[in-house]
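Let us practice reading a record.
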Amino acid sequence: MTAWLIRRFVRNNENVEDSNVRTAYGTLGSVVGVLVNLLLAGAKCLMGFLSGSLAMMADAANNLSDAAGSVVALITVRLAHKPVDAEHPFGHGRMEYLGSLAVGALIVCMGVTLLRDGISAILHPTAPQVNWVVMAVLAISILGKLWLYGFYRKLGSRTQNGTLLAAAKDSLGDVLATSAVLVSMLCCLFFGWKIDGWIGLLVSVIVLKAGWEVCRDTLDSLLGGRPDPEKIQELRELLLSREGIMGIHDLVLHDYGPGRCFASVHAEVDADGDILEIHELIDDAEREIGEKMKMPICIHMDPIVTSDENVQRVRQQISDFVCRIDPALSIHDFRMVPGDGHTNLIFDCVLPAGYTGRDTLMSALNAFALSLDERYRLVVQFDTDYT
């Protein structure tokens, strides 16, 4: 079914880097989500009214909120597709993140409502009227939500659409929630246990957990969370495979929404090389790597001295010492500037995000430099590793 829907409604569906294709995927996922959730909500609401089951009504309300979330997703997908304009030179891609956040907020609000109703039902328990028609509706709902989970996940994974992936996570939670309602019905039918309120409470916890996870993951993207490690690794390998690039540092991925990343990096090149040849090398790397990874990349040239053996030796000593302190640390842009009374060792030291031992590190570096030569003085610029 999923493959047929994709073929039927998404033209050129393999080209997921194309913004029109991404929008078509998002529109398809949202529309199908609205239709399926409205159908399930209507069926459960009717069965819940006939049986008097609070847990069933709670599950129906949950499906109704999912339908509302799909409407929000549809709106944000269309807004994210808006072209670049004067006020938004990087496009509107982050609207997808806002859509994910809105879906998460809807899920949390519904969870709070279900929690309140569940507590009320525990305090004032009633036995629902159970029949096989009601349980058949629940079983069909579980199967429908399982399909919707796979549907959302396939579309979201293909396009890296956070809103669809959030909906997939919510659908999986719904499977568990509806299964819990079915269990409460069976317990009432065979044992006479009035656990409808407790099951409603369990459903609310599942819904709240799903909503919290969606909001947390989306906020990470909006606030500048860690970029995709696989994308970082691929970019490193492509850069270091280029002849003439001796090393890289200060690599940053700028995220303006799914499929809208920009990269910047410093590439170390031979200071004694021909500047025009190196410039051509960097231009070729920017163009070819950018085309391969489907994102613009800006490469800054950093010349390093390779012909002075003393500079190379001291650089290696400092680098090895830094790595012994912490393997996550590194140095770059190393220079030696001799003077009348002392020699400045100038370099950048890269620290992991959140590193707290800078003062201790600086003291250790000063002591180590003096142990190499009493004339050495350090001039250190501390950088943050954004990957």
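A brief commentary: The first helix runs from residue 2 to 9.
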